[in-house]
Amino acid sequence: MNFLSVAKRSPLVFPLACAATVALIFLSESSYFRATSSLQELAVMTRIRMTTRMMLVGLLDAETNQRSYLLTADKVYLEPYERGLAASKEGMRELGLAFVRDPAYVALLADTQLHFDAKKNVLAQGIRLTDAGQSEQASLLVKSGVGKEQMDEFRANVAELLQIETERTASEQASLARTLLINRIGLATLSAVCLLALFLYLRQALILKQRTLDSRRTLQDDRDQLQDEAGISTLMMTELTQHLLTAREDERGRLARDLHDELGALLTSAKLDAARIKSRLSQTATAVPGAPGVSEALERLTHLVGTLNASIALGRTIIEDLRPSTLSNLGLVPTLEILVNDFTEATGVQAHCDLQPVALASSTEIVVYRVMQEAITNISKYAQASQLWVSMKQDAGWVTVSLRDDGIGFDADETPRTAYGLLGMRVRIEAEGGRLTVISQPGQGTSIQLQLPVQCSTEPPKA
């Protein structure tokens, strides 16, 4: 459908579509960046909360393992003790880096660091007393509750940090929800605008579509009528072509029979009469030596007999050209072999034959013979070939006859319209329900392939 025609009929469609597209892109991109920023902030906040919790858990773990060491003096508790202090210390460092520029956190983190250091010193004092063998003093240090105040303050600070992060997380989630809500409202509005533009477009499109369908229906009716007429014409032309080819072959057969039966008989009778006259003159010349005119008459009769022999030979050649007797007497395979052998003897081209008996009707055999005769004639005139390959076989309901040479070839895609030889060959084969394929390139020889459906011959197969 022509877009310009629709735009002219509905001038609001194009501006609305452009405005909706620009607004949709802007809304989508802005919402994307806002949502991405909020998600990144939420990820940072989640990590900070995890770090804060791990900091508290690390210090508690260190305190638990320190008391286990004080009670048992087993150094196996020192490793988790050190690991807990290291985790808590790493958490303090990460929090410091995360909020180094946030004044709301600096004072709180500094106070938390003081309580952490104090608690760490108390824990370390108990380890030192135990290592020095003063287990009772270490137990008294634990029972005295020294460091509990620092631990409570440390817990309170951690709880405050977690509360602040929880509030910030809730605020960021609310911001993300607002962004998504704005995006939904914007998309709904733009969708409504797009639906309006689509409605305007479809209203005109339906009108144009109906007109187009009417035009197509009219064109389709006209085309169907033309196709029917063309099909009938093609069928009539095919039947006419097949009738003309059959009539021509029948006429050739009739002429061949007339030449053989009538002209052949006349020439043979004349030859016999001339032979008898020559014999009588020879007897007269022997009985009356030197008889006037006898010698000259014998020479004339000898010349006449030679002329009659040549005429008889010419008549046989013409009869064979009109209708090869070998095709009726011996069959298609011997006839094609004789055709190829005559060609090789006349041109010196080396031929390679692979001909197998096939099932074709007699009318189709003469078509194959004529096409091969035309193809060999073209090779002798134009191909300049030194070798020729001819094959015939039957497979899967099809008879395939191929002829290939190593001549100069030609461009099969640019065959001139005056190439009536190939056109005639194609018409003959297609009239029999087959197909002809010509493959050739300059300098690469030519390949001609005939494919015909297998037919039940009306005559018994020839050996």
Summarize the structure.
This protein is α+β, with helices and mostly antiparallel strands. The protein has helices at residues 3-9, 13-72, 78-98, 103-131, 135-143, 148-287, 294-322, 325-329, 332-347, 362-383, 420-431, and strands at 350-355, 387-395, 398-405, 435-440, 446-453. The two termini are 68 Å apart.
List the helices and strands and how they pair.
Layout: H1 3-9, H2 13-72, H3 78-98, H4 103-131, H5 135-143, H6 148-287, H7 294-322, H8 325-329, H9 332-347, E1 350-355, H10 362-383, E2 387-395, E3 398-405, H11 420-431, E4 435-440, E5 446-453
Parallel strand pairs: 1-2
Antiparallel strand pairs: 2-3, 3-5, 4-5
Helix pairs in contact: 2-3, 2-4, 2-6, 3-4, 4-5, 4-6, 6-7, 6-11, 9-10, 10-11
Would you kindly provide a written description of the structure presented here, covering whatever features stand out?
With 463 residues, the protein is α+β, with helices and mostly antiparallel strands. Helices cover 76% and strands 8% of the residues. It has eleven helices and five strands, in the order αααααααααβαββαββ. A five-stranded mixed sheet has the order 1-2-3-5-4. α6 packs antiparallel against α7 and α9 runs parallel beside α10. The longest helix has 140 residues. The protein is elongated. The C terminus is likely disordered.
